[in-house]
Amino acid sequence: FVATTTNKPLQGKKLLLTAGPTREAIDPVRYISNHSSGKMGFALAQAAAEMGADVTLISGPVNLATPNNVQRINVESAQQMLDSVMDNVEGIDIFIGCAAVADYRFADAANEKIKKSADKMQLNLVKNPDILASVAALANKPFTVGFAAETSNVEGYAKGKLEHKKLDMIAANDVSVKGLGFNADNNALQVFWPNGSQALPVADKLVLARQLLALINQQMPN
Ligand code: CTP
Ligand code: CA
């Protein structure tokens, strides 16, 4: 038996990806997060493994089974996700940032449960590090692919992120469309790279994952 490259186009490639939401602690019993289900990232991990890649999936808290032949690392906060990505990025050929990383965390998360007292309270937030931009800034960077969740001006914002984060490709989705994107089984993507684009119409996330990986394989240097 001789393995062909036709059905395993990512054989020999090492892929690292992030998926799911992050949780930013307010105190030991509370956090802020978002509605990301992790489905798109897990579909990408499954599809990449099926295409022969060596896959490491760094996931925030989600309710999904680990796909076959995927090495999974669980994290909670954005800072933990960044640390785990940096610990695992060496030798990686493709990085996909699919996680819905919280943009802000609490400036001073409390060690003890916060008791209620005043009628109003304020929480101070500070910006989280940008994991995707940090990978794209590495000297020996992998082919770096981002996602963009937008509710308007999808193409404009996505192209802006492609450029200022110095990405090789970005997959944008309009999260204002009901039944698509966040928490849904289906999605639709507009994919942009520095000199091209491709629309991937509404489909099951696993189907889209295969199409996006085929595009990545086509656009990345050998
Ligand atoms: N991302 C990341 N680290 C962050 C924020 C975002 O790695 N701290 C990644 C996401 O995984 C995604 C991409 O950046 O691949 C775009 O995320 P998105 O939330 O759409 O864009 P932001 O750059 O955070 O800008 P904004 O939320 O203001 O649109
Ligand atoms: Ca964001």
Automatic annotation (TrEMBL):
Binds 1 FMN per subunit. Keywords: Decarboxylase, Flavoprotein, FMN, Ligase, Lyase, Magnesium, Metal-binding, Multifunctional enzyme. One of its GO terms (cellular component) is phosphopantothenoylcysteine decarboxylase complex. CTP binds at G97, C98, A99, D103, K113, P129, D130, I131, L132, F147, K161, K165. It catalyses: (R)-4'-phosphopantothenate + L-cysteine + CTP = N-[(R)-4-phosphopantothenoyl]-L-cysteine + CMP + diphosphate + H(+); N-[(R)-4-phosphopantothenoyl]-L-cysteine + H(+) = (R)-4'-phosphopantetheine + CO2. GO terms for biological process: coenzyme A biosynthetic process; pantothenate catabolic process. Residues 15-222 are annotated as: Phosphopantothenate--cysteine ligase. Its EC number is 4.1.1.36, 6.3.2.5. One of its GO terms (molecular function) is phosphopantothenoylcysteine decarboxylase activity. Residues 10-218 form the DNA/pantothenate metabolism flavoprotein C-terminal domain. Transmembrane segments: none annotated. Its cofactor is Mg(2+); FMN. Pathway: Cofactor biosynthesis; coenzyme A biosynthesis; CoA from (R)-pantothenate: step 3/5; Cofactor biosynthesis; coenzyme A biosynthesis; CoA from (R)-pantothenate: step 2/5. In the N-terminal section; belongs to the HFCD (homo-oligomeric flavin containing Cys decarboxylase) superfamily. In the C-terminal section; belongs to the PPC synthetase family. Catalyzes two steps in the biosynthesis of coenzyme A. In the first step cysteine is conjugated to 4'-phosphopantothenate to form 4-phosphopantothenoylcysteine, in the latter compound is decarboxylated to form 4'-phosphopantotheine. This is Coenzyme A biosynthesis bifunctional protein CoaBC. The gene is coaBC.
